[in-house]
Amino acid sequence: QQIQLTDRSILSALFDRPGEPLVNAIGNIRFNVPPNFLPTTYRNVTLENRFGTSPQVTIPNNTIIPDLSLPIQLRRNEPFSLFIPMHRKMAARLIDVLVGLKKYEDFVTTVVYCRSLLNPLLVSYAYSVAILHRNDTRNQALPNFACINPGRFLSARGIAKELQERTNAPITDEQRVRMPIEIPMDFTGTDLDVEHRVAYFREDVGINLHHWNWHLVYPFEGPREVVDKDRRGELFFYMHQQIIARYNFERLSNKLKLVQRFINWREPIPEAYFPKLDSMLASRVWPPRQAFALIRDIARPVEQTYIDLQDMERWRERIFQAIHDGRVQNVNGSFVPLSERNGIDILGNILEASDLSINPNLYGNLHNVGHLLLGFIHDPDHRHLESFGVIGDSATAMRDPIFYRWHAFIDDLFQEHKNTLPRYTDRHLGYPGITIKSAELLTNGKQPNILNTFWQKSDLELSRGLDFLPQAQIFVRITHLQYTPFVYRIRVQNSGKERMGTVRIFMAPHFDDRGLPMRLRQQRGLFIELDRFLVLLKSGDHTFIRNSTQSSVTIPYERTFRNQDRNQATSEDTNYCGCGWPQHMLLPKGTPDGLQADLFVMVSNYADDQVNQRSTNMCRDASSYCGVRGEKYPDRRAMGFPFDRPPTEGVETLESFKQLGNGNMFSRRVAIFHTR
Ligand code: CUO
Q1: Do 194-418 and 9-140 fall under one CATH topology?
Q2: What is the atom index within ligand 1 of the atom nearest the CA of 406?
Q3: Domain spans of the chain, in order of start
Q4: What is the distance in A from the centroid of ligand 1 to the CA of 398?
Q5: Do the bridges between strand 327-329 and strand 335-337 make them parallel or antiparallel, or are there none, so unpaired?
Q6: pLDDT score of 572 more than 50
Q7: Under CATH, which architecture does the 194-418 domain have?
Q8: Which spans in 449-544 are helix H?
Q9: Which of 240, 259, 366, 414 to mutate for ligand 1's pocket (most ligand atoms within 8 Å of CB)?
Q10: Mean pLDDT lowest for which of 221-225, 352-356, 560-564, 632-636?
C-alpha cells in the first residue's frame, strides 16, 4: 500500500527508534528513498520482506535537499549537547532549515534525509523544535520523549538485558513483553548519601520531561521567530526559580538543609552523582562525578570548546555591576535600563544566555557555560575521550544535585536585581471591595487542610524507543510520588459591582531547616505556585470550588504516563503539549507526622492582570511555567507576583504581609502527611 508524503502518520513514525536505519521500516512505514538518502552500507540493500505488509512511502529520485553541510559533521554515534557551542550552531542551522522550508512536502523529505544520515539526538531535538514552530505542524502530537528516548530517562541497558534474559524463560512471547519490567526506586544510590533522599524528585520521569519540553518550547538559539517569545527571559528566571523552590520544599520534607548556592567555583564540590544511565544511541555510559571534584578550564579540541574559569568570573562581575547600576550596555555602547517592567526579561536573556542577549561579548554566556564546565568536570581536556555528564543535557540535567546548586546561584543573581526594585504596596497588592472570607483545602472524607502523599507505580510503554528490539509492547513499571487529589474552597465577598479577579494560590514551608518559623524575607523564595485562574465576581458572596487537578502549573497525569501504543492513540494526541509540571508532583512529599506549610490565596485586580489578546490555543493548561504556545504570557504581573520582590520595610512575616491590601489576601496553616 502506497501512502502520500502528506500522510500525517509519517511525522509520528519519524520519531520512532531513532537509532535504527530507514531500511528497517520505521514506525511501521517503509521508506522507499533515493540512494543518496542512505548511508553507504545500506545503499544496495533492498527492503526486507518481513516489512512487506507495511505501508510504503516513496521519495522521488530528483529530491533536492537543502545545505546541511554543518549539522552533518556531527557523527551519528556521538553525544549531542546544546551547551556545546559547536553543537548549538549545528542545531541552530538545522532548525533554521526545517522551520524555513515553505512546502510541507519538502519539510518531510528533508526530515527523512536527516533521520537517515544525521546524528539522531541532534535530529530528534531540531525536528521537535520545528514541529512546535511550523504553522503546518504545530498541532501535531509530539510523542512522549521518555518513550522514544528511554536511555535519557531510565536505565535502558538494564531494560534490554532484562528482555534478553526473558527470551529463554519458559513463557510465551506475548507474556514476555507484556510483563512490566520493574525499575527499582533506588537504582542510583543509597541513603548513605544524604542527597539520595531526594533522588525520587531529581530522577522523576515527569519532572525531567517537563524540563526537556520547556527547553524545546523556549530554545535559546535558532531563527528569530523561534527564540523571540513574549517574556522568554523572565520565564527562564521564573520556571527555574520555581524548580529550586520546589526542590527546597522537598528537601525540608526529608530533613535536608536548603540548597547551597554554588558560588565558590574554585572549591571542590562535595556532592557526587552516579547516573547509571546509558545511551544506546551514543553507545556510551553517562560519566559519573566523584565527590569533591573540581571544575577546571576546558580545552577540548574535539568540540572546539575552550573556556576559562576567569571568563566566567569576569562575566559574573560585569552582570553584578550592571544590576547595581540598574542598566546594561548594548553592543552600540548605549545604556538600557533594567526597568521594573522588563529588566528581569533582559537579564534572563543575558544570563542564560539566549540569542536575544543584549551584549553577548560583554556579558558572556554564564548559565550555559556553567552547565558545560560542570558537565566536563571529569575530563576537561578530553584526555580520557569522555563526553559530558548528565548536567550537560536538558533531558537529564535535573537528575544531578549540582543542577540545583548551580541554578540557586543563577537565581541569586536574579534576586539581586529584584532587590533593587520598589516594594509592592497596597496599591499593587489590594483589590478594594474584594475580601477573602476563607480558603480551605478539602480531601474526600478527611479533615480539612490535611494533604496526603504516597508512592504509586505507573507503567510506560517503550517499544517506540528501544532500537532493534521486537516490535511488541514493552512496559516498564516505575515508582513515583503521588498525592490524593483535593479541592480548594474559597469564599469571596464582593462589596462593589461585578468584575473579574485573578485567584493566585501558593504554598511554602512554615519552618526553615533549623526548625524555626520563617521570616517572610526567606520564605518568599520558597513559595511554590499551585494554581492561578480567573473568576467572575458578581456583587455579594461567592464560594469557588477548584480541583487540584485543574492546576495552571501542571499537565495531566496521562500526559506523563500515557500509553504510547500508536494503535491506541486518542484524539487528545492532536493537541498534545508536553510542557508543564507533572500532576503527580504538584505537592512536595511531606513527612509521616505532617509537614507544616502555609497556604496563601490572593484575589488580584484583573484590571492590572489583563493581557489583551484573543486566545485560541488549546495548549494552555500549564501556562504558569510554560506560557501559551504562540501567544503572550497570559498574566501581566511580574512572574511570581506577589512574592517576586522582597516585602517592604517592617513587614517581617506572612501574617503582616497579608494585612497589606484590603483583605484580598488570605493565608492559613496546612499540613502534608506522607504515608509509606
Ligand atoms: Cu533549564 Cu540550566 O536551564 O537547565
Answers
A1: no
A2: 2
A3: 9-140, 194-418, 426-567+574-674
A4: 8
A5: antiparallel
A6: no
A7: Orthogonal Bundle (1.10)
A8: 520-523
A9: 240
A10: 560-564
Residue 584 near ligand 1, beta carbon < 6 Å? no
Q: What is the pLDDT of residues 118-176, one digit of tens each?
A: 999 999 999 999 999 999 998 887 889 898 888 889 876 677 777 777 766 777 767 76
What is the rounded CA–CA span in Å between residue 527 and residue 18? 40
The answer to whether the beta carbons of residues 476 and 536 sit under 8 Å apart is no
Please give the pLDDT value at position 41: 80
**Ligand 1 centroid vs 370 CA: distance in angstroms?**
10
Map residue 274 onto helix, strand or coil: coil
352 is catalytic: yes
Range with the poorest average pLDDT among 142-156, 353-367, 655-669: 142-156
**Fold of the domain spanning 9-140:** Hemocyanin, N-terminal domain (1.20.1370)
CB 256 within 8 A of CB 194: yes
397 lines ligand 1 (CB under 6 A): yes
Q: Point out the ligand 1 atom lying closest to the alpha carbon of residue 370.
A: 2
Ligand 1 touching residue 210 (CB < 6 A):
no
Of 38-47, 518-527, 559-568, 632-641, the poorest mean pLDDT is in 559-568
Architecture per CATH, 426-567+574-674: Sandwich (2.60)
Higher pLDDT, 576 or 403: 403
399 close to ligand 1 (CB < 6 Angstrom) = no
> Closest Cα partner for 585 from 470, 498, 456, 477?
456
